[in-house]
Amino acid sequence: MIFRASLRHFRHHPWQLLLLLLGISLGVAVVAAIEITTDSARHSFREAQLQIYGRATHRIQAQQRIPESLYVSQRREQSHWQSAPVISSVVKTSGDEHLLMQLIGVDPLREQGFRNQLGRISGSDIGFSDLQTSPAVVMARATAAEVGVGLNEQLTLITANGTQTVTLVGLLEDAGDPRLQQLLLMDIGQAQRMLGMEGYLSHIDLILDADEVAAVKAWLPGGVQLEVTEAALSERAQLASALYFNLQALGLLALVVGLFLVFSSVSFSLSQRRPIFAQLRTLGLTVNELYRYLAMELLLIATVGTLAGLLLGIVLAQLLLSLMLNTLSDLYVTSPLSLLLLNPLSLGKLVLMGIGGCMLAAWKPCQQLAHVPPASLQQRYLQEQTALQQSRQLGRYGVPALVFIALVLMLWQGSGLWGAFAGIAALLLAGAWLMPAALTGLSHLLERQLAGTQLALRKPVLLMLIRDNRRNLSRTGIAAMALMIAISATVGIGGMVSSFRDAVQLWLTERLNADLYVSQSRVLPGVRKALPSEFITDVASLEGIEAVATLRRVQLSVGGRPVNLYASELPQPMRPAYQFVASDRNAIWQRLAEPDSVLISEPLANRMGLRAGDQLALTTNIGERDFDVAGVYYDYGSDSGRILMPATTFIRHWSESPYGLALYLADSGRLDDIEQAIRERWGGALDLRLQRSSLLLQRSVEVFNRTFVITDVLRLLALVVAFVGILSSLLAIQLERQEEVSLLKAVGLNRLELVSLLLGQSLLLGLGAGLLAIPVGELLAWGLTHVVQLRAFGWSIPYQPDLANWLTALLLSVSAAGLASLYPAWRFAHQRGIRRWE
Question: What is the structure's pLDDT at 576?
Answer without folding.
Answer: 92
